[in-house]
Amino acid sequence: MFVPAQYVAKNPRAIVEAYSFGLLVTTDANGLHATQTPIFFETDDPEEMRLVGHIARRNPQAAGLAHGQPALVVFTGPHAYISGNWYQSKPEVPTWNYVSAQVSGVLEPLDEPEQKRAVLEKTAQKLSAYGEGAWAMDDAPEGRVEVLLPYIRSFRIVAHSIQGASKLSQSHPQDDRDRVIARLKERGHNGDAEIARVMELKDPF
């Protein structure tokens, strides 16, 4: 992952945890595949290097998932266009602020029913953090989860590297950064509010 030194995320794991809808990229005999799906660290250990997720079995990528297969997961956080006119103390051309992380590692299919159920339980547990309306495995109709298990392929990725980028106008004076935050809030396009929010935090990532 290419990241200029001033934008290297100090805590890329936090990006993975905050923006967990990852893009799983693999290759097989049929070429390159990519699927977006929720992917989470397997445990809450801050040193955990294993991630788990699942995709639909009817997805062509699923058939090619194999033990020892190289895998890349891209976690894309908020992003927003930054006008060059917003930088006044230190004039600059237009740019893009963004938060992103990449995990590269080795894939392990998890095809046993108890393994797939464990991945679904982890997914439900993590998504319950969204609060009101959150769904738990116990909320499923009796027997429904068991019916669905054959139609998914779960996987584990043993990560070799976790890298992140947090490009939030760090190279500019504080008055320019404050101006960028204000303009983002005023404009209100997709991603603007979230980029403004993380820019207001001290060392968010």
Blueprint (SSEs and pairs):
Layout: H1 12-18, E1 21-28, E2 31-41, E3 50-56, H2 60-63, E4 69-82, E5 95-110, H3 113-127, H4 144-148, E6 152-167, H5 174-187, H6 192-200
Antiparallel strand pairs: 1-2, 1-4, 2-3, 3-6, 4-5, 5-6
Helix pairs in contact: 5-6
Tell me what you see in this structure.
- It holds the Pfam family FMN_bind_2.
- This is Transcriptional regulator.
- It comes from Microvirga lupini.
- Helix content is about 25%, strand content about 35%.
- β2 and β3 (about 50-55) form a beta hairpin.
- The model has no long low-confidence stretch (mean pLDDT about 95).
- It has six helices and six strands, in the order αβββαββααβαα.
- It starts with 11 loop residues before the first helix and ends in a 5-residue tail after the last helix.
- With about 200 residues, it is α+β, with helices and mostly antiparallel strands.
- The chain has helices spanning about 10-20, 60-65, 115-125, 145-150, 175-185, 190-200; strands at about 20-30, 30-40, 50-55, 70-80, 95-110, 150-165.
- The protein has one domain (about 5-200): Electron Transport, Fmn-binding Protein, Chain A (Pnp Oxidase, Chain A).
- It is elongated and about 60 Å long.
- The longest helix has 15 residues, at about 115-125.
